[in-house]
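Hey all, sorry for the wall of text incoming. These are the two entities for the joint prediction.
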Amino acid sequence: MYEELLLTILLTSVPLVLAATGELVAERSGVLNLGVEGMMLMGAVSAFGAAILSGSPIVGMIAGAFGGMMTAAIFGLFALGLATNQVATGLALTIFGTGFSGLIGAPLVGKAIDGLPSLSIPLLSDLPLIGVAFQLDALAYISILLVAFVAYFLKRTRWGLVLRATGANHDSAHALGYNVLAVRWYAVLFGGLMAGLAGAYLPLVLTPHWAEGMTAGRGWIALALVVFASWQPWRVVVGAILFGGITIMQLAGQARGWTIQPQFLSMLPYLATIIVLVSISRSGGVLHKAPAHLGRIFYPTR
Amino acid sequence: MSVTPLFEAKAISKRFGDFTANDKVDFAINPGEIHALLGENGAGKSTFVKMVYGVLQPDDGQFYFQGQPVSLSGPQAARAMGIGMVFQHFSQFEALSVAENIQLAMDQNESLEALSRRIESLSQAYGIPIAADKLVADLSVGEQQRVEILRCLLQSPKLLIMDEPTSVLTPQETEQLFTVIRQLADEGCAILFISHKLDEIKALCKQATILRGGKKIDTLDSETHSKHQIAEMMVGTSISAITRKAGAIGTKSLFEAKGLSRPADGPFDITLSDISFSLYEGQILGIAGISGNGQDELMGALTGEWRDPSLIAHLSIGTDDLRTLSPEERRRKGVGFIPEDRNGHAAVPSMRLTENSLMTSHSAPEMTKKGLIADDVLADKTRQIIADYDVRTPEANPLASSLSGGNLQKFVVGREIARAPKVLIVSQPTWGVDIGAAQLIRSALLSLAQQGSAIFMISQDLEEIFAISSHIAVLHDGHLSATYELEEMTPEKVGLLMGGAQGERA
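and here's what came out:
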């Protein structure tokens, strides 16, 4: 029974890890993209549609990543190309993504697909309790590899350094001759790709059908998760499991007939988000600092 | 000269829209030469060096490096050629370490560990020690500049551009920097040194090129020309020394501070202990002292940004007790304030000048009509300040951020004086502004005092203190010395007090 619970928690946290890691990269480059929810929904609908058409969940996965990336490109066009306000553009992107995915997803409602199969890793998956962590699907393993890649990229590579520098001070990065807008474009597109994969995970693994607005606020939790992780990739994983845990405990509690109001329980992830945000802003240590030029508009001079 | 110059610029022009920042500027520098580039704020110095470093592209003209025509398409191209630049506002990343900052500016790939070792050995060689793994946020401004210099030195530059490198340094740090610069010049590196401190230029440079209004005025031998001659060429008009008219000081005390103590808020703050002074009609009390000896803390206590009535024995203007009053309430009692930092403290960069002038005058009755802002009155007042204080603006009502430092400072000073304060509290009135603007600001302060107001002026510029103060006191380690009359003070005496020596009572 505990194994089942743990498995569900892990599955719930995968899309959070994916979306938050992508957003983390965008934010480290200085771009605040509040359109994660919209990009996830576009990823979800693209993945589900492509999986139905092709019959292959792998094709669905790729289509989901592509759908998220294209949605991020809309954001890039405005926020980077036309230097619009990032907060307003991101919010608009979420509203757009919610509506547009509902529109093109309308004919898909009620259909079902075979999701991504689970891949058991021999030996490890036989371990008691934690063995479930090795009975997941390909995308879940990929998500951990992507976190490792992002952590290594940001900390150890030259281009990761350039990306962090762009977020820390875009004027200085520009003065040193780095192409700030190009760096941010790559980061935004990567963020979209990851959000698209996160969205794809919902119909491909969690619930093998499409429903309008099926991300149900996960995009917002992913955004909070980036702050919770204080912009450090591995902390995203910890936070995602924690947030996933809260979500699942609430469902499990309802099933066991806890006397607490279910509305209170479904409120918990958001409450935790707020508490974490408040405690981070109160502690205010250097470690928790946001990239200094996060959300600031960059005008190149020539 | 028979030698080919290391670097040459011929008829370089740069326009931003209708504004010509550089107009056919010629320039040449030889290896091992320390060459000054002089000019007031807005004369086009920064624009010119940015083109030399490839950050900006010229609209016209040609650069030559070692006699060959070159195009500097970007900083990478400039660095590849051997041109390095130390920026005025350091282009550093506070959240990154020293080594990471330097790595960003290096074009060849080198591991962080190897680079750290090179940084530390080079810093030892030039006598400017620095730890490569420290976060830049934890360094002092002087140390941050060392990072900039080391960054350039690692690329063994042939031409090093330094954009006002001393504006943030203490006198000792400046001396250290000059030693490094001379060492570099001896090794054959050409140095283009931008400053508007004439003393430094005379001490360091052989040649000086003067820019004014985007045009090159002359290249001259800075050793054979007097400071006064050079300054006049920079400003373009003859400079008359401002003179204080003595004897206008009244006997009526306008402003009293007694027993003001303030505990330090944090590890980098200074504890103020038992500060007392009085201001009389027509008096300008100059407060000398090296920065970081309690100037910010004292300023905060006088403006009312910090207030704790239990720690101040007495603070009053006339008969009104100020101890519990907010800055705005103090303003209404007739005190004016000009904080040191014009960007973000004295003025809001992202607001227009009208909004900035409303900021300190909104309680005046003529500024509102039935509770709404009287836009026409506000616009008139702002126009008046702009005209009276020669604030040069790109448009009628620009954003504060679009003004150069000197012009914004003239506006901020004008805004406060226009309110005709009985007492004006000002910190560093001419910090980082050019000679013309400083001159104007100082005479404005003098004429305010002549009209019977009292001025409390914190300044780190001794020349300024001696030029306009009627009385002088020195702030050292949170203690304020006794007040001396100008006549009984000499720069040496002030220097001793600044260093913490106990002055004998006059």
